[in-house]
Write a structure and sequence with these properties.
The chain is an alpha+beta fold. It has one domain: 2-Layer Sandwich (STM4215-like), CATH 3.30.2000.10. Helix content is about 30%, strand content about 40%. Strands 1, 2, 3, 4, 5 and 6 form a six-stranded mixed sheet that branches. The protein is elongated and about 50 Å long.
Length: about 130
């Protein structure tokens, strides 16, 4: 069974170290507390996709959200900001997946445009989904 706290710590530490590169202001490792600061990365809750895919190994799906604010009616600027951030976060995650503690296999499954609801407000976001077997 994967140590979920260790995985969250690994992802959070790596993304915190890369804040300057990714242009992200804050990395939320579990929950959004206090005033939400965007652009941000929100490490979501994992889903157990397939228990015992192999003896003693489970398959997990783990969402990582890249979120930007919408500072007015300029949708082009909002989308440009999101595109600039999510691609950089994706690149950082690609470098982090190989070192996930306890994982025998980890990869990025997909990145999808959407939104993330924070305190009743919908923010533009990309959800980057990791698949982890461990």
């Amino acid at each position: 069974m994967l140590d979920l706290a260790a995985v969250r710590g690994h992802l959070g530490d790596g993304l915190d170290d890369a804040k300057d590169t990714t242009e992200v202001e804050r990395v939320y490792r579990r929950a959004i507390t206090g005033t939400f600061q965007a652009p941000a990365v929100v490490i979501g809750q994992p889903s157990l996709e397939q228990p015992n895919v192999q003896p003693c190994l489970d398959q997990w799906s783990w969402p990582v959200h890249v979120v930007v604010d919408r500072p007015g009616a300029d949708e082009d600027a909002t989308q440009a900001k999101l595109e600039g951030c999510w691609v950089k976060v994706y690149a950082e995650l690609a470098g982090l997946v190989d070192g996930i503690p306890g994982a025998v296999m980890a990869r990025i499954m997909r990145a999808e445009f959407g939104s993330l609801l924070v305190g009743g407000v919908s923010f533009p976001a990309y959800e980057i989904t990791l698949e982890i077997v461990g």
